[in-house]
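yo

u said u wanted the structure for the complex thing, so here. seqs first:
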Amino acid sequence: MSALATQLGVTGPTSVLVLLAGALLLAAAGCVVARAVVGPTILDRVVALDALVVVLVAGFGLHAAVTRSTATLPILVVLALVGFVGSVSVARFAAKDTQ
Amino acid sequence: MSPAEGPLGTVLDVLSAVCLGAGVLLAVVAALGVLRLPDVLTRLHAAAKPQALGVVLVAIGVALAVRTPAAFGVVTLVVVFQLVTAPVAAHMVGRAAYRTGKVRPDLLLLDELGDLAPGEAPEGGMPEAGAASADQDADRPAEPGDARPRT
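structre next:
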């Protein structure tokens, strides 16, 4: 597994930990996307995509911590704001939809 | 600051790894809950936890690993935005789920809004507090405030 880590450019004593965290995040994103596809209501999809935003924030944070770069940190701000606006607008739409 | 700072840097790196690992595990648990739980409200319950705690943990981990003032500033912004907006978004999604009848009544232990909408509770919708509720209350014969369940 550490050979895979060096092949991916992740080096250092914690490379296996980083790969493990990445694999867990990938599994989490798979679960969340499955729920967003299955539904059954639009509010389920909104909840699932909010959870996907959390997974993305964790992934970008992991990348920033591993590479010690601040280049991806503005993406975290954008994700936080866009997730809020998206879920609130869809919730308003769903409230008006069936009434 | 450079990453290699001797023993203090190592301690900060280990703390950062612990915080990031906890945040990642919270995200995984939330994803499992979103996939496996039966209802909109229960899925919302599972997904709303890491929106506050998980993001805070990841932000602390990033700040401890990067250790620059710019990273501290951006990470503080992310935490403040998330702590302000995540409960509001979760509340609006839950309210929309209740009003549009997407809540399974057999899973509810206590429906404190049920007596506000007699008959078919979730489909009837919840009356707005304020001016809109005045005529709806006039339609209903007598249901004063003492009909609400006390805890």
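Helices of chain B lie at 7-36, 40-66, 69-99, 121-124, 132-139. Residues 118-151 of chain B have pLDDT under 50 and may be disordered.
cya
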